[in-house]
Amino acid sequence: MFSKACIYAIQATIYLAQQSGERGGKPYTPVAEIAQALGIPFQFLKKIIQTLAEKGLLLTQRSAKGGVALARTANTMTVLDVIAAIDGVEMFTTECILKFPGCGNEKPCPMHNHWAVERVRLQKMFQQTNLEEVAVNVSKGLTRLGMIEMKAT
Questions:
Q1: Which residues contact residue 130 at a Cβ distance below 8 angstroms, ignoring those fewer than 6 apart?
Q2: How high does pLDDT run on average in the chain?
Q3: Which of 100, 99, 78, 81 is nearest to 89 (CA)?
């Protein structure tokens, strides 16, 4: 349903939300740290970070203490914000789940009516889920982030 870039973007922004909650005084996280912690290829993550920065979701800083940080507080940034920045919101509005061209009410695909209901539900869920609440669950060890289990604090 989501591109690999979108999945990595969600993971990286949750990681940043977790770090901003734990570090207090260190606002920027090196991209290499994120890539290593989440098992994301570094060069691919750099491109994703660049896109998220261009869309206004991340701040970047080049220096010895540089890296990336969330552009807003984690409790005001939703998972839908990240999805929209990377994959767009068409999957929640017009895109066919089976990728059939011309799918719609007049010429529906076999999954059209089911997807029409679910995409509204999923969009609402992603819109109501902010990065802070997800990051808190990761920090508490209630959920894991990516392939690697994060240490509970």
A1: 74, 75, 76, 77, 78, 79
A2: 89
A3: 81
* 114-119, long-range: CB < 8 A, 24+ apart: 119/91, 119/92, 119/93
Return the CATH number at 80: 1.10.10.10
What domain range is 9 assigned to? 4-139
Per-residue pLDDT of 92-102, as tens digits, reads 988 888 989 99
Kindly compute the dihedral angle of the four CA atoms of residues 87, 93, 99, 100, in this order, to the nearest 10 degrees. Answer: -150
Question: What single-letter DSSP state applies at residue 148?
Answer: B
Encoded amino acid at 114, one letter: H
Furthest-apart CA atoms within the chain: distance in Å: 57
